[in-house]
Amino acid sequence: MIDPRIDTYIDEAADWAKPILNHLRTLPTRAVPEATETIKWGSPAWEYKGILCVFSVFKDHCGFVLFNEKEIPEIEALLGGVEKPAFGSLGHITSLENLPPDEILIRALQLVAANNEAKKANPKGTATPKKTAEAALVPDDLVSVLDQNEAASGHWDGFSVAKRNEYIAWFDEAKTEATRSKRITQAIEWISEGKSRNWKYMK
């Protein structure tokens, strides 16, 4: 759901900030189609079973907050290489070049949404299961290649559910069989070295 107050917020922002704000605005609903726009603490925000994220513009930079990110270790892994000298999850944002790839932010937003869902399913005062993530079904084409690579198979078996699901989601997002096959081939190389899907963005 579009909130016209966010249109006004962006229209009133400095020209340098508008491309950043307009781009950030597209991400929450790409990650979580059910997310809705609103205003929280005077800034644009998105909600899905709780707050997903908030962005703000300051005098010389923008800030973007993933809500309750400290509760979600996978987000720290995704954004581990981001310096955070200022308010927000992404530090100073002064241009689009400061932003991580969209797929990283979309995955982070999906993790926040999953965390919100878990909280709704387990209200305060009830026991929260230790394992909140559910493993996606390993596709046959990946199983076949893993069976042929002992090193990759060994690392795969030791990966967390979150690490496995990041790879599987990447394969499933491929729009053609050729792209999917190429991604699996690349993944096997990384997995055999014990690397996660987003290892390039981690320190």
Structure, described:
Strands 1-2-3-4 form a 4-stranded antiparallel beta sheet. A hairpin with a 4-residue loop joins β3 and β4. It is α+β, with helices and mostly antiparallel strands. α2 crosses α4 and α7 packs antiparallel against α8. It contains 8 helices and 4 strands; from the N terminus they run ααββββαααααα.
In short:
The chain has 8 helices and 4 strands, in the order ααββββαααααα. The protein has 203 residues and is of the alpha+beta class.
Number of strands: 4
Provide the helix percentage.
Answer: 40-55%
Rg over alpha carbons: 19 Å
Count of runs of 4 or more consecutive helical residues: 8
Distance between the termini: 37 Å
Query: What multimeric state do the chains show?
Result: single chain
Attribute tags:
single chain; 203 residues; alpha+beta; 4 strands; elongated
Write the layout of secondary structure elements.
Elements: H1 4-11, H2 18-31, E1 36-40, E2 43-47, E3 51-57, E4 62-66, H3 73-78, H4 102-121, H5 140-146, H6 150-158, H7 161-172, H8 177-192
Helix pairs in contact: 2-4, 6-8, 7-8
